[in-house]
Specification:
This protein is of the alpha/beta class and about 290 residues long. It has one domain: Alpha/Beta hydrolase fold, catalytic domain (Rossmann fold, 3-Layer(aba) Sandwich), CATH 3.40.50. β7, α8 and β8 form a beta-alpha-beta unit. α1 packs parallel to α10, α2 packs across α3 and α5 packs across α6. The model has no long low-confidence stretch (mean pLDDT about 95). It comes from Curtobacterium aetherium. This is Alpha/beta hydrolase. Keywords: Hydrolase.
């Protein structure tokens, strides 16, 4: 097993990739940096088809200025070994194997999109370990509009070789202002030139979309699960998410007992990358306040 302690004085674009082998046999690729006074890290869970390099430095670095952060590829994704699960439930179990391998008994979670599905299951599976929850651009299992994506979003998201244009179409509102901020985001992702992560494959795409579809199968009874999430929760969303529809975020905020919602204007799925400084400030304030309560 090879693992590292958090690295201070580094950023999203300069921190080295580390590896740790868990009890399930998976070797997880991750990046760990920053420092938390209370020793509790914030674990970031990535979107559909994303890897370590898809996290926006303009979002993560301001958060890491005040706390320890951990970016991780789940099983079979990017530089991690193993097979990508086709269910959210198994993705959550795999991530708990990762935190166990690092010896982390208590942590906060930031889940974006598919990562937000997994974050919800983590909070329910191990409530004593997950302290606070940030859910961005995501939605609840079984809710209306959650079963798959509309035709144009599915087409753009399931290309064999995704392009920048595909990502702009999916992630940002179809307005000049949102698109221009999306182009700035794509430029930021190119800032890391060394030790880049492995690209995700078509097998990752297919298994993850199976998990997305299974999560969204209509079943209103599953909404009751949200009442079991007792952690303080911050929900972040754009006002017109075309991938995971915005009303689902209102459902999350309404049914999770201790949740608050912030909706960004003129924004779609990647509102946190369109407004990275604002999102980082909201996350920092939320975690500071929730952790002190």
């Amino acid at each position: 097993m090879t693992s590292t302690a958090p690295t201070t004085g580094t950023t999203t674009t300069t921190v080295r990739t580390s590896r740790v082998t868990a009890a399930n046999g998976t070797s997880y690729a991750y990046r760990r940096f920053g420092s938390s006074a209370d020793g509790i890290p914030l674990v970031f869970l990535m979107h559909f088809r994303g890897n370590l390099d898809n996290w926006d430095p303009a979002l993560v670095d301001p958060i890491a200025a005040d706390r320890e952060v951990i970016l991780v590829d789940n099983a079979g994704v990017g530089g991690s070994t193993g097979t990508v699960p086709s269910t959210v439930a198994q993705m959550a179990v795999d991530l708990l194997a990762f935190t166990d391998a690092l010896g982390i008994r208590r942590f906060d979670v930031f889940g974006f999109s598919l990562g937000g599905f997994v974050a919800q299951d983590l909070a329910l599976l191990r409530p004593w370990a997950v302290r606070n929850l940030v859910l961005a651009g995501t939605g609840p299992a079984g809710a209306p509009t959650m079963h798959g994506w509309r035709e144009d979003i599915e087409r753009e998201s399931r290309q064999d070789i995704p392009s920048a244009e595909n990502l702009l179409y999916i992630f940002f509102a179809h307005t000049e202002t949102s698109r221009s901020l999306g182009i700035e985001f794509l430029r930021r992702l190119g800032g890391r030139t060394e030790d880049r992560d492995e690209p995700t494959t078509a097998a990752v795409r297919d298994a993850q979309y199976d998990a997305v579809l299974a999560w969204g199968v209509p079943d209103i009874s599953k909404l009751e699960r949200l009442t079991g999430i007792r952690q303080p929760t911050l929900v972040l969303q754009g006002d017109d998410d075309l991938m995971i529809r915005t009303p689902g975020s209102h459902t999350l905020a309404g049914l999770i007992p201790d949740a608050r919602l912030h909706v960004f204007p003129d924004a779609a799925h990647a509102s946190i990358f369109q407004y990275p400084a604002e999102a980082a400030a909201l996350v920092d304030q939320f975690l500071t306040t929730a952790s002190a309560a």
